[in-house]
Design a protein that fits this description.
Layout: E1 6-15, H1 21-29, E2 48-51, E3 55-61, E4 64-74, H2 85-100, E5 107-113, H3 120-134, E6 142-147, H4 149-154, H5 159-165, H6 168-176, E7 181-183, H7 188-208
Parallel strand pairs: 1-4, 1-5, 5-6, 6-7
Antiparallel strand pairs: 2-4, 3-4
Length: 220
């Protein structure tokens, strides 16, 4: 809490190269803090923290409207085209401890592409990666964010049909995180409109978790 009429939520985004992690961070912040572009190699090479301005009209507590501030930690992709697995883990672990070690983390967003299938090996490696960084309670503090939902819609998949036809690998992952998931449309003219919707969903996950925060310390 930043004050009696203001709330700050701390988020981190994880994901593979070109899933749209940095774009997700920018859409949550309502800014262009994080570099995001099409590239044949991993774009993000270090962690960076972005902070939003005060956002109104999103959250009410005890019958009163509160201002919302969002902090998002953008992280290098895993696997990465230039960094080793241990380099990525060390970088992310240090940044988590530095930015959220004392304040705590509300939610990690695992970014996947809705227009690409999730393979078992990829899911297993991703789960192990997040578990090593967040610890044994990672499932309580992780939600899945599916980007490029517009491409799935163009292919004729509504959210309901998509989940009905989704692979057992994706459905198992969603079950692990207690079905905390969000579909994000990546068309630029829609992202701005969807920001409030996405933030309300993020807040609903935080509320379901009774506003608990994950405290992170750097292990030498």
């Amino acid at each position: 809490m930043a004050g009696s009429n203001e709330m700050t939520i701390n988020l981190v985004v994880f994901g593979r190269t070109q899933t749209g992690k940095s774009t997700v961070g920018n859409s949550l912040l309502g800014s262009s803090d994080f570099e995001s572009r099409c590239s044949p190699s991993s774009v993000t090479t270090r962690c960076s923290l972005g902070r939003s301005c005060r956002i109104s009209g999103i959250i009410r507590r005890n019958g009163c409207e509160m201002a919302l501030r969002v902090q998002v930690l953008d992280t290098p992709a895993y696997p990465h085209t230039a960094l080793s697995e241990e380099q990525v883990k060390d970088t992310v672990r240090s940044a988590l401890a530095h930015h959220f070690g004392k304040k705590g983390l509300h939610l990690a967003l695992l970014v996947l592409r809705a227009d690409l299938p999730l393979c078992p090996d990829e899911s297993d490696h991703t789960i192990q990666f997040i578990q090593e960084l967040l610890g044994p309670t990672w499932k309580d503090f992780t939600a899945v964010l599916l980007t490029h939902a517009d491409k799935a819609e163009e292919a004729g998949f509504s959210e309901e049909v998509y989940l009905h036809r989704a692979s057992s690998t994706l459905l198992s992952l969603l079950s692990l995180v207690q079905h905390k998931y969000i579909f994000l449309n990546n068309q630029k003219n829609i992202i701005k409109e969807e920001r409030a919707i996405v933030l309300r969903k993020v807040l609903s996950f935080i509320r379901q978790n009774n506003y608990k925060m994950l405290l992170l310390s750097h292990k030498e």
